[in-house]
Amino acid sequence: FHKPYNTPPKISISKPMRLESRLQERFYKNYMRDKIAVLISTTSDRITDIRDLDYAYKFLSKNRYEIYALTQDGCDYRNLRVDGVLTAQNLERLLYYLSKKIDTKDLLFFYVTGHGSVREGAGASKENLLGISLPDSLFIEQTFDYYFSKINPKEGIVLLDICCAGNFVRRFSEDNYVIMCGGENDVYHLSPLSSTFGKRFINSYSGHKADKNKDGRVTIDESFDYARKSFCLESIIPPKRAKLLIKSDLNLDEISLE
Fold it and tell me: Does pLDDT of 256 surpass 80?
């Protein structure tokens, strides 16, 4: 598979973007718990994907996240402030930067909307390659896993609202992460409703409507249950139940996006 960059590659885009300057910013280790979010849209042909990111951006900004956003066209949308065009190099350079910036006190939220894909693998195993469909390439799960093995927050929350993402959940094994998706590895999101799992997840925090035990805090477990139930009522695609990952000590009842 594509060997990840060991040093940050140069960004090759046609116009200057905020990403370039943001990746040059110096950061210092501190004693504070920082909250960092990465928002990705792989497509420009479904406005629902951009609207979902816009909705998430508004919520995350209110909760004082430092947000990085990449989209296919690199354009701002309503509340959504976009840092750059989504390419393999830009995404890898951002992940490399975050591997240096994020420490074991921090919270990371990584949210992808748009297209995912499955391709037949080569070699003796013929194992299918799963990936996030970027405009210029397929960001395969092995590259994805490589970078996330280098990013070590206290808690990492990965939400993949893309097609064919089930095996991302099964194979991803970083013990300080929770990973979830809205469909199985053989499911393609064909209807408008099936692209809204991520928005339902974020919406669960609005008015604490997912707070089942009324303790004033919405946990990841409560958020997922709320999103799963409302999603299944309006879509024929059953979402993959997010689970505590292998070797993880995280308790979903203790983690929240807030």
Answer: yes
